[in-house]
Amino acid sequence: MSERLYTDVLVIGSGPGGATTAALLAENGFEVMLVEEGKHISIDDTPSYSLEEMGEKYRAGGLNSSFGATNVTMIEGRCVGGGSEVNAALYHRPKESQLDSWRREFNIAGFELSEIEPFFENVESELSVSKRPNTVGPSSLAISKGAKKCGWSSGEIERFWKYDKGEEATGGRRQSMTETMIPRFLKKGGRLLTGVRLERIKSRGGVATSAVGRRVGSGGKISIGFNVVFVCCGAIQTPLLLRRSGLRNVGDTLQMHPMIRFAARFPTEINDPKYGVPVVQIDEFKPAMTLGGSYSSLPHLALWLGHSVPDREEKLESWRQMAVFYVAVVSEGRGSIRHLPVVGEPLVRFPVSGEDMGALGLGVKRMGEALFEAGATELYHPNTGAPINDPRGLLELGEGLDRKGAAVSTIHLFSSCQMGERDDCPVDSWGALKGKVNVYVNDASILPTSPGVNPQGTIMAIVRRNVAHFLENRISRKRG
Amino acid sequence: MSFSIKGLVESNFDAIRGITEVVISRETGAAEDQLEMVDETTLELIARISAMPPHLGFGMMALVRLFESSALASGVVASSLTVVNRGILLDRWRRAPLGPARDFVTFFDKMGAFVYYSKCEAADV
Q: Do residues A459 and A16 lie in contact, with contact meaning Cβ atoms separated by under 8 Å?
C-alpha cells in the first residue's frame, strides 16, 4: 500500500537550490513540502571532513564515479542542506563577462547584470559572506607567499561563514542550509520530509500531478500530489529524475571541474586543521584554472600522499609540516547521465580529455612552483607519489598528467539541464521546464556552463532570481 | 527499484581483510601489532563498498574475487599468503596494464589509509 501525501508546492532536494526555493516560497505564504533523500543532521553532529561525515552526509559515502577514459570520483552531498553542509563554503561571484556570455549564448531573458546583481547581494547579506578575521592561517599564507614570489595574483576568498564580534579566525559558524534556509523554512510552517527518494514525476499531458518514490531503508512506496513542483536534486539526480519521468532532452550536457590533489612538505609546521580548508586561491589563471589548498588532517594526508613515498611512515609522523593542495580546471567536456534499470542509480559518463589532463599537469607544475617559492622542500607527484625536490622536477608535468594512476575527482557538478530560450535548453530563462506548465528546475543543473569559480554563490543567486520571477507571475495571475 | 550488495561484500570479509592488512602494514611496519585496527578498518571498508552504487560495488567485488583467486597458481588464495607475498601480488596489480585493476589497488591504498588513520585518531592511538 502506497503512502499518499499532498501539498501545494513540492520541492525535491534540500541543497542550496531546494532549501532556498522552499524557504522563499514558504515565506511568501505558500504551503510547501520539502523532500530530501538523506538525513537531517546538524553541522555539529559530525566533525567536518571526517570519515563519519562522509558516511552520513555524502552520497555513496563519497565513493561514486563517472566513467570515461579517466574515471572521476564525484563528491555529492546527500543530506538536508546537500553540498552546503560538506563543502569548503567558498563564495565567489562569477566574472561579469561570464554572466554576459551566458545571457547572449543561451538567450537568457532578464539576465542583465543590473537585474541579477541584487540577488548576489541578497545571498551575500543573508548568508554572512565574509573573510576570516585577523589571519588566514599558515597554509593559506604559504600559498599567498608563493604566488607573490612568482608574480601571480592571489587572494583570500570569502566564505559562507558567520563570525560573532571578537571571534577568532578559527571560530565562526558555517552558514550552510541547515543553519540558514532550513530554519527559515520550518519557521514559516514548511514541512520537511527526510529519508524519501522520489524517483519519477507523473503527468497528465502538460501538467505534472504527483511524484512517486520510496522511503529509504524500509522501501515503502510514497506518492506526493502537488500543484507545482520544483526539482532541485543537483546536477546528477535532477536529470536522472526527469529522464525517469519521460523526458529525453536532459542529461547530456553535464559539466564539472576536474580536480587533482597532491601533498607538499615544508621545513616547518604549516598545517593547522583548525583553519579548515585554506581560503587563499591563486587567481592568476582563472577562470580556466584554480589553484588552492585542501583540508589536510592526518587521514587526508595519508589519503593523498602516494603509497610509494619513501619513508612514508616517518613523513606522516611530522604531518604538520605537510599539506594537501589542489588544481581544478574548467573542462570543455560534456557528460551524460542515464538511468540504470534494476540498479536504480545513474550511470554517469564524462570525457576527461587530453586537454584536461594537460591542464591538470600544468596546474600541478604551477602550484608546485609557487610552493617551492614559498619554501616547500618536497612535493609528491600526484600519480606516483615520487618526491620532487626542486622546480626542475616539475618540468615534465607541464606536458600533462598521465591518465595512468591519476586520481581525478570533482566536487563541482553542474549544467546538466541548462536554462535559456535556445531550443536545446530544457528549461527556460526562469527555470520552467519546457512542455510542462507546473514543473521548475532550480539547482546547479540549470547553470548554462561552468561559472569558472566555486559555484554555490552563483547557484543561489540564480535560484533566488527564479523564485522571485515565479512569485511575480503568481501574484500577477491572481490579480488578473 | 534499488538493492544493497551488503551481504555479498560481507561474505568476502577475509579477502578484503587480507588487502587491508597489506595497506596497514605499510603504514605501521607491523600489522601483527595492529590486529584490532586491521579488523576495524576492514569493517569500515566493507561498509564503504556496500554504500557504493550497486554497479560500482559489484565491479569492486568482482575485482576482490579476482584478486583473491589470482594467487591460486601458488596453491592458495591471496588472503592465505603471507603479508609480504600478498603485498608483492598487490604491487603487480598496481602496475597492471588494465585500468580497473589499478583503480582497485588505488581504492585500497587511499581509502585504506584514510580509514586507518581516521580510526587511529578516533582511538587516540
A: yes
